Amino acid sequence: ADETRNLKLETGIQGGQILVSFETLVAAGPGYAGLTRHYQLQCCTSPAAADWTPVPGYEDIAATGNPITCEATASGPALCYRTRVWLAD
């Protein structure tokens, strides 16, 4: 794994569904003993909004090194997405 890579969200459309995906990175190496990296996918209607909310089912994802993909409906208001990342023991 490349520990220097940056987290990035990728989006796409498949079968009328919006796909939001990102790679998870396991906490490993010096300084990470006993720690787990966690991810939370959040959404809101404006990137400047202060009221980002967790996407149901994506509130606390422990990193496994595998990609995570959220399927969102294309109906309703347009949404912006971001990812929150933290370490926990």
Helix and strand topology:
Elements: E1 10-14, E2 17-23, E3 36-44, E4 53-54, E5 61-62, E6 67-73, E7 80-88
Antiparallel strand pairs: 1-2, 2-6, 3-4, 3-5, 3-7
Task: Give a written overview of the molecule.
The structure is a single chain. By secondary structure, the protein is mostly beta strands. It contains no helices and seven strands. It has strands spanning 10-14, 17-23, 36-44, 53-54, 61-62, 67-73, 80-88. Strands 3, 4, 5 and 7 form a four-stranded antiparallel beta sheet that branches. Strands 1-2-6 form a three-stranded antiparallel beta sheet, with no helix packed on it. The mean pLDDT is 90.
Distance between the termini: 21 Å
Question: How many DSSP helices?
Answer: 0
Q: What fraction of residues sit in β-strands?
A: over 45%
Structural class: mainly beta
* Number of separate strands: 7
Shape: globular
Q: Biggest sheet: strands, sense, closure? A: 4 strands, antiparallel
Mean pLDDT: 90
Helix percentage:
under 10%
What ranges have pLDDT less than 50 throughout 5 or more consecutive residues? Answer: none
Q: Provide the gyration radius in Å.
A: 14 Å
Helix and strand element order: EEEEEEE
How would you describe this structure in keywords?
single chain, 89 residues, mainly beta, three-stranded antiparallel sheet, 7 strands, globular
